[in-house]
Amino acid sequence: MNFIRNILAIIGIIAIVGGGFAYSKFGSMAPQMSAFNNMQPETKEAMMANMDKFSALEPKTIQSMMGNIDKFAALDPIILESMMGNIDKFAALDPETVKSMMENMDSMMADMKVFDTFDPQAKEIYTDMWNKLKDTGNTAEATVWKYDLEEGVSPDDAEEAMKAVANEMNIKSVGDLPLSDQISAMTGEDHRKLKIFQFCNPLTAKKMVDYSDAFAAYLPCRVSMVEGKDGKVSLYALNMDMMIYGGKPLPEDLKKEAIEVKEVMLAIMTRGAAGDF
Q1: What band does 206 get if pLDDT is binned at 50, 70 and 90?
Q2: Domain range spanning residue 46?
Q3: β-strands 221-227, 172-177 pairing
Q4: CA dihedral 133, 269, 235, 275 (to 10 degrees)
Q5: pLDDT tens-place string over residues 83-118
Q6: Has residue 181 got a pLDDT over 80?
Q7: 129: in domain
Q8: Averaged over 246-262, what is the pLDDT?
Q9: Are residues 105 and 220 located together in one domain of the fold?
């Protein structure tokens, strides 16, 4: 019996010493645990799913982040999930830098609050754009749609199909720019395929410009046919989601028409790439 009591005493001493060490290293965690318990389930899940990445951080960095855990609780789950997915990158930062970032999170949060006045899909749109930009480092690739021509579909097939779809869906083909032909004529050398196709619904264009003159920069809708350096031909167009959902909600009638134009442009591209007349 004395032996068992001695073992329990040793375990108790180890627990006290371990707790004291943790307290001296990280401070009291009670406020942080309270803030964590008050988080939305989605926010907790995003943090817990990336908990293993915290092991790469210095204790001071963890302490700074935990000291501001209440600010994480106010973040939108989608934004927090993106942050947590990159938490290991904090390991490369000096703890003082992380501390400064955490202390300025209130200012960041104020900026993020602006999204509350935007279209409900805006956060998703910009998160997707950021992820593409992060992966490619190329702003153009982050803001376009791309469809490769399917096997056996020639550029001429794709062009004919796109114009047939445009006619079928009542959007006007308002001009082509055969840039590669012009480049060849000016240089005397062959150039890989580069041709721009322009489409427009004039009445929808009028409504967009009546809403904001700046939307004129998006007119007309364009599809670029590009032969890549690898010889593969692809169709590119500006991703219209940012225009439709990226700011304050458009008036419902205008938004409806803009979505219809988006669906037409996607049909032109997908059926063009498939050679589907």
Answers
A1: very high
A2: 2-117
A3: unpaired
A4: 150
A5: 666 666 666 667 777 667 666 666 666 777 788 899
A6: yes
A7: no
A8: 95
A9: no
